[in-house]
Design a protein that fits this description.
Helices cover about 80% and strands about 0% of the residues. The chain contains 16 helices and no strands. Helix 15 packs antiparallel against helix 16.
Length: about 375
């Protein structure tokens, strides 16, 4: 029989292994999202200059990726459940790297659209599947936060590497090579990942009780992407440094929010993170101390995802976790698709970029307010 000290030591060792697993696997969304998705906004000026893209054409390329991400999120549980989560995640990870490297060849516009659509689908498979694998492997909030924080590392690497490019083709080639290295690092985690357990018939219906949290997540998606879209025009600071600060903050999600969410639980943690996120997005704070806004926003925007996955772990049977990740990511992608347009309309009607940023903050405030709606799966007092 183990001594209590031996049990505590074993528990700490297990937690340390899971934290390391979160760091290693975090290179997967770092490649697929931090570089594959976020990188487009950084390469876009080069693509417009080299290809002579109109704003509509540039926007359509972005929409293709966003639409692919929504489609991938909606299909993720069915596809990954069929081929196996681990196999599907790693195949998707390297295939989405291939879509970036293919852009290095300078294909025609319609091929660019197809490649960005495919990258969106594959990126969603990586993000959703990786989170499901990590949850099934026993990860708690700190390890999950480090996994999601990998996106911040990808964003930082994208921002720092692009000045080395001399055109949009070389930019995508450089990003693709960095994404490939990150994918190879993420592969080290593969042997220790457990497949999500199958859903049992008696477990059905649990996710419906968390519907308000999914609406919160959609509103958060609209507000987060509204800020990320219009902050480029609204910040009076060097953009490269601003994005680096935001990306560094995102990479710190795990140590910053993990212990808090583990202590207070997913529901309370979600409210705390949304509060900080909403405050960090406010236009007066951005104008007065832009790097503080960037750091707080960076630390918190992935903290929302960390809190939500903790909520799933606490309130749902294990067989529902993978499906919950897919549905929640689809809800987020829906909000993300609508957010920039609605915030932009507000900007056109009420005073430009500043009004668009206020609209993004309003979405985040709405998400915070709705997060206080009691969940039917809440334990009875």
């Amino acid at each position: 029989m183990l001594h209590p000290r031996g049990l505590a030591s074993a528990a700490r060792s297990c937690e340390h292994r899971l934290v390391l697993l979160g760091v290693l696997l975090g290179f997967a969304p770092g490649s697929a999202i931090g570089i594959g998705r976020f990188g487009y906004g950084l390469v876009l000026p080069l693509m417009q200059a080299d290809l002579g893209l109109t704003l509509a054409q540039a926007g359509l390329v972005g929409s293709a990726n966003t639409g692919g991400y929504l489609l991938g999120a909606a299909l993720s549980h069915a596809v990954l459940g069929c081929v196996g989560y681990r196999r599907g995640v790693y195949a998707s990870l390297f295939l989405q790297v291939a879509t970036m490297l293919a852009l290095w060849l300078g294909p025609p516009y319609w091929v660019v659209l197809a490649l960005r659509l495919a990258q969106g689908v594959l990126g969603a498979f990586v993000f959703v599947g990786g989170a499901a694998l990590l949850l099934a492997s026993g990860a708690r909030a700190t390890a999950m936060g480090l996994y999601f924080g990998g996106m911040g590392a990808g964003l930082v690497l994208s921002t720092l590497s692009l000045p080395l490019a001399d055109g949009w083709r070389s930019a995508w080639g450089l990003l693709g090579l960095i994404g490939l290295v990150m994918a190879l690092v993420a592969s080290v985690a593969a042997p220790r990942l457990r497949e999500p357990p199958p859903r049992r018939p008696e477990e059905g219906g649990g996710l419906g009780r968390l519907a308000p949290a999914l609406v919160v997540y959609a509103l958060y998606g609209a507000g987060y992407i509204g800020y990320m879209t219009f902050v480029t025009s609204g910040v009076a600071a060097p953009l490269a440094l601003f994005w680096v600060v935001l990306g560094v903050g995102a990479a710190l999600t795990g140590p910053a929010w993990g212990p808090v969410i583990d202590r207070f639980g997913g529901a309370a943690g979600l409210r705390l993170v949304l509060l900080v996120l909403a405050v960090s997005s406010l236009s007066p704070l951005l104008a007065a101390v832009p790097y503080v806004s960037a750091l707080l926003f960076g630390i918190s925007f992935l903290g929302v995802i960390t809190a939500l996955t903790t909520l799933f772990r606490e309130r749902l049977p294990a067989g529902e976790w993978a499906r919950a990740m897919g549905l929640s990511t689809a809800a987020f992608a829906t909000g993300q698709a609508l957010g920039p347009g609605l915030s932009g309309v507000a900007g056109d009607l009420f005073g430009g970029v500043d009004a668009a940023l206020w609209a993004a903050s309003a979405f985040l405030a709405a998400a915070l307010s709705l997060s206080f709606v009691p969940l039917r799966s809440d334990p009875r007092p």
